[in-house]
Design goal:
Length: about 120
Amino acid sequence: MLTTITLPRPHVPTGPQGVPEDHADADYLRAVVMKIDSGFTRVGGSGVTAMIRNLIADAAEVLEAPPSTPGRDIQQLVRDLIDRDDCEFDHHGGCQAHGYLSLQPGEMCPHAEAKAWLAKVGA
Ligand SMILES: [Zn+2]
């Protein structure tokens, strides 16, 4: 099961003025979560409301997360940068396919390491 998916940025109509856009949008989304939690706003049945509430809360967290947090941009960057071709090792253990010719015993080709990381984080 995927633990992280990439969705388009939520369309936020308004937010506080004079603060960075990510903070303004996160603030708006958190206000929506507070309205749902207080019973002011309902979306469908209780299961649907809970799902929408959690989706909105997660989006607010991602907007203000540091760039190094997996799930924001890093997974997509890694996905874009890795070569889809498999490694091809020479008799010295270097990866000919990706140009990492002086890998030491126990070292992985960075492309293989990146693919393993993406599989681990559920991308
Ligand atoms: Zn390789």
